[in-house]
Design brief:
Strand content: under 5%
Radius of gyration: 11 Å
Distance between the termini: 13 Å
Number of helices: 2
Structural class: mainly alpha
Largest sheet: none
Shape: elongated
Order of helices and strands: HH
């Protein structure tokens, strides 16, 4: 669980630094949402 949270934090930090445009920000938010959704599925199983 801690590793998963660390991975999500890393992804969010990476996404935040990669936002150069509004389009890029939208892609970053989508990627973060997908990561959270996958983690929720893993935890539920």
């Amino acid at each position: 669980m801690k590793l998963t949270l660390a991975a999500i934090a890393f992804i969010l930090a990476t996404a935040a630094t990669a936002c150069n445009t509004v389009e890029g920000a939208g892609k970053d938010v989508k990627a973060a949402g997908t990561a959270v959704e996958e983690t929720a599925k893993d935890v539920a199983n």
